Amino acid sequence: MFAKSLLVAASVAAVMFAAPLAQADTVKATATLKSDAPGAVINKYVYGQFSEHLGAGIYGGTWVGEDSAIPNTRGIRNDIVAALKDLHVPLIRWPGGCFADEYHWRDGIGPRDKRPSRKNNWWGGTPETNHFGTHEFFDFAEQVGADAYVNINMGSGSPTEMREWIEYMTSPGQDTLAQERRSNGRDKPFKVPVIGLGNETWGCGGEMRPEYYSDLYRQYTPFFHKNADNPAARVAVGPAGDDVNWTEVVMKNIGPNRMEAIALHYYTLPTGDWGKKGASIKFTQQEWVDTFAQTMRMDGFIQKHIAIMDKYDPEKKVALYVDEWGTWYDVEPGTNPGHLYQLNTLRDGVLAAANFNIFHKYPDRVKMTAIAQTINVLQAVILTDGDKMALTPTYHAFKMYVPFQDATMIPLDVQAPAYTLGGKTIPSFNASAAKAKDGHVYIGIANMNPIDGLNLSIDLASLKAKGVSGQVLTAPKMDSLNRPGAKPEVVPVDYKGGKVKGSTLTLDIPAKSVVVVRLD
Predict the structure, then answer these.
(1) Are residues 136 and 33 part of one domain?
(2) What percent of the chain has pLDDT over 90?
(3) Chain mean position to CA 231
């Protein structure tokens, strides 16, 4: 069947951009659910978001101002808040990103008409009005029902600036900083459960060596004052991709008693080339496969970094936060290159689910992730155009996987045939399973095969089930998408392809799709 797919692909790849792909065959595969050997809880923070001051991620995306004709609550778009609440977004990381290491928090407090305007040097040189600052961010997070992950400035800041911002946010006392917060409209301290110390200090955050960053981190930690007022998890800057040396040095020199997490960043570029990353739409079948070959590297990276963490932290005190991940394509023609605006297709929805399934494999270490980014930037869950809004395929993948938040991982031993095209090989699908808080077992499948459907037979072993229900996300074209103001092309629908017979669950899954089922 794979030979047939290869012949089809070879004959049409050069012209197959937006054309529908005819299903060529059905891949048969098996899996075993090990319900008697549950793993750790999949932390809800695995479904976190990242909102940086970048392009229209904040201004025009989250923030429109109180005087806008777009319905808002204290300047924050109501439609965005409602959509994110439906995702049960657990955590939002802010203000960056590269932006964080040029951000000085005092620019973003007090009367908005008195706040300084700065040049956003990293992202297009556009003016940063600072109208969206500390109070506005926490208002946004609280409206959504999400926890806050604040990234402090180590690249151009100081330990004093960090300490004062933390005290401004968290102090319950009568000190000057707490009183200043009150004078700016917030009596009670803000809840700040996660604080990152720097961002990408190996690159835009200072071009530091891991040895230097480790020493700088240790200089900052005494002034962090981790206590009852400030119980935040301290997140150390971690590696990019497979930079195991960075992880080794940081884990050794900082150690598990000075941090609660270390961050990993990895972006999926179809080409793997930052100079020419690949298009977000009108891509070929080969580019589809290339993209998934790149994203599946995430699994190996996580394994390598966990092995080093186990060496220095066998008690698993330190979590691995994948707090920047997602697809990164060439920007859409005619847009500001520094605003990183890209369209979001079915490919992105399937890719999101494939990464969820990877993260679920490591619940004892991978305690948080944040897709880049929430609105209008990179692999966004929401796109806006004026007062119009679109929920992307990535959004729908997040929505389908909501039951996995704080669910108990159940090992799923999958035998996935390979799919090869143009010298690139990917698993035809991946999957994960968990017992949710509602007591039901859920199974999520990402069929990465763009041509072939999947007939998956799962041995439920000791688990008793009488029925199966769920949703499927797919579309006729690889680059089907949802645009603001247009009828959506990619939406989940009820899934009818499953059946339970005895101890066997059989699922018929379309090509290029996401399926999440619940066992009843």
Answers:
(1) no
(2) 95
(3) 24
Q: Which residues contact 223 (CB under 8 A, 6 or more apart)?
A: 159, 160, 162, 163
Do residues 206 and 295 share a domain? yes
**Of residues 93, 73, 74, the one with CA closest to residue 82:** 73
- Residue 101's Cα: distance from chain center in Å? 21
Chain segment 14-61, per-residue pLDDT in tens: 333 333 444 468 999 999 999 999 999 999 999 999 999 999 999 999
The set of catalytic residues is 200, 324
> How many whole angstroms separate alpha carbon 357 and alpha carbon 355?
5
Residues 108 and 23 placed together within one structural domain of the fold: no
Identity of residue 350 = V
Measure the CA–CA gap between 520 and 518, rounded to whole angstroms: 6
CA nearest to 236, candidates 208, 272, 276, 271: 208
CA-based radius of gyration for the chain: 23
Whether residues 463 and 384 fall in one domain: no
The model's pLDDT over 427-477, given as tens digits with 9 standing for 90+, comes to: 999 999 999 999 999 999 999 999 999 999 999 998 999 999 999 999 999
Here the tokens at position 84 are: 């994110």
DSSP type of residue 100: G
**The predicted structure's pLDDT at residue 162:** 98
- Work out the burial of residue 253: count CB atoms within 10 Å of its CB; fewer than 13 is exposed, 13-18 middle, 19 or more buried: middle
Which of 361, 387, 405 corresponds to the end of one domain? Answer: 405
Q: What domain count does the chain have?
A: 2
